Automatic annotation (TrEMBL):
The keyword Iron does not apply. Pfam families: Amidohydro_1, HutF_N. The keyword Zinc applies. Gene3D superfamilies: Metal-dependent hydrolases, Urease, subunit C, domain 1. Residues 53-430 form the Amidohydrolase-related domain. This is N-formimino-L-glutamate deiminase. Its cofactor is Zn(2+). Keywords: Hydrolase, Metal-binding, Zinc. SUPFAM superfamilies: Composite domain of metallo-dependent hydrolases, Metallo-dependent hydrolases.
Length: 456
């Protein structure tokens, strides 16, 4: 299997992005899949794997893998009031066609694409639990088992976030038929968590957290019970849509982030996904708690969500990471690029997020790296003790020619069309070579067969 047997290997990079900044002639020694030593300004030794420019692998903190198969199928104009909510109804109809085999094949395709794009770990916000008629599988964690198998076959690091979903709207409103495959009560969800832990048992450095889907899908009592079920990461969708904010105000007199902080002990374990529509007061609450805001710029643009007040969040000391969410397009560089460009369009300026005289590309990359590591429950970066998750940029990519250091990373993020990642290692094991996942052909064959069944 791709993710088995973490490797002992030594790399020598012409330059590498370390936590303290760029370094040259960097030797990275890996043992049992982790970085055992890093030495800069040192010559290459016999047996070292010779690399050009090395970056730490980036975490993707928010994914719904199965939605990769419906990418591009909802782009039809002329529908009055087309929005996230109408897209959601299409998504409900699509997922009714998924069985466990198709679900796994789609996840393998999505995870493979993430690795080729430079994401080495994914936070899978997993809410498709049951069969098409809503009945539980013989193994209640069957779909989690399939996600673990997809991670194993591709080699991506997995932080599994089983989702608790019980209601259709604020105040415990009964669920609708389209949500039947998601639903649990607290006792059933506890059993699901046990099954998820078993599913991850053989995956190196897998992490298990959980996710209340949203304030719409949980009650206060359930939310408090969930927080006590894990020591791992806790993720939640929040304040993504104006309609969601208005409904929360009508129900409680408070906005979603306001309500959450009044009723839950939000801390560094939490990731607040989207948080698009927030006030300055809510920004200060999020930043002060140490929680990570999970931003998904490609999906947020695709769904017409709006733009998060990023500069205010940064000024308050807030943390963030990026995710591919609906997986309509899987591209780590594009997530960071669109995050910056969205703010430029709003603020009508250039290089609006990074501090003065600091590379925008390096600042975005390092901040997203640290935020995703925190949100996914792992240590991130090229540092002793961290997983040996690294990627090499392509020295032959024309957009990177003549660059080094910050200008190289800026060019990779803002100017390198069709990606600039040449090779990717996870736990010291090579998974991507010359821009292609080593198992791409087999994965794509299974994916195409799954699409043929789903779209027939």
């Amino acid at each position: 299997m791709a993710s088995a047997a973490p490797q002992n290997v030594c790399f020598h990079a012409a330059q590498a992005l370390l936590p303290q900044g760029w370094a040259r002639d960097v030797r990275i020694e890996c043992a049992q899949g982790r970085i055992a030593a890093i030495t800069a300004d040192t010559p290459r030794q016999d047996g070292d794997r010779n690399l050009w420019t090395v970056l730490p692998g980036l975490g993707n903190l928010h994914s719904h893998a199965f939605q990769r198969a419906m990418a591009g199928l909802t782009e039809v104009g002329g529908t009055t009031g087309d929005s996230f909510w109408s897209w959601r109804e299409l998504m409900y109809r699509f997922l009714d066609r998924l069985d466990p085999d198709s679900f796994q094949a789609i996840a393998e395709q999505a995870y493979m694409e993430m690795l080729e794009a430079g994401f080495t770990r994914v936070g899978e916000f997993h809410y498709l639990h049951h069969a098409q008629d809503g009945r539980h599988y013989a193994n209640p964690a069957e779909m989690a088992v399939r996600l673990a198998a997809a991670a194993d076959r591709t080699g991506v690091g997995l932080t599994l976030l089983p989702v608790f979903y019980a209601h259709a709207d604020f105040g415990g409103v009964a669920p609708v038929p389209g949500q039947r495959r998601f639903l649990h009560d607290i006792d059933g969800f506890a059993r699901l968590l046990e099954g998820c832990a078993q599913a991850l048992a053989d995956l190196p450095d897998a992490v298990l957290g959980l996710a209340p889907h949203s304030l719409r899908a949980t009650t206060e009592t359930e939310l408090q019970a969930l927080a006590g079920m894990t020591r791992g990461p806790i993720h939640i969708h929040i304040a993504e849509q104006v309609r969601e904010v208005e409904a929360c105000l009508a129900w409680s007199g408070q906005r979603p982030v306001q309500w959450l902080y009044a009723h839950a002990a939000v801390d560094e374990r939490w990731c607040l996904v989207h948080a698009t529509h927030v006030t300055p007061e809510e920004v200060r609450l999020m930043a002060g708690s140490g929680a990570v805001v999970g931003l998904c710029p490609i999906t947020e643009a695709n769904l017409g969500d709006g733009l998060f007040p990023m500069r205010e969040h940064i000024a308050a000391g807030g943390r963030f990471g990026v995710g591919s969410d609906s997986n309509v397009l899987i591209d780590a560089a594009e997530e960071l690029r669109l995050l910056e460009y969205g703010q430029r369009l709003t603020l009508r300026g250039r290089n609006v997020l990074s501090p003065a005289n600091l590379s925008t590309g390096r600042w975005l990359y390092q901040q997203a790296l640290e935020g995703a590591g925190q949100a996914l429950g792992v240590r991130a970066g090229l540092a002793v003790g961290a997983p040996a998750d690294l990627l090499e940029l392509d020295p032959d990519h024309v957009s990177l020619h003549g660059r080094s250091g910050d200008s190289l990373l800026d060019s990779a993020l803002f100017a390198a069309r069709n990606g600039a990642v040449r090779a990717v290692w996870r736990n010291g094991r090579e998974l991507v070579r010359e821009g292609r996942h080593l198992n791409r052909d087999a994965i794509q064959t299974r994916y195409r067969a799954a699409l043929d069944r789903i779209l027939a």
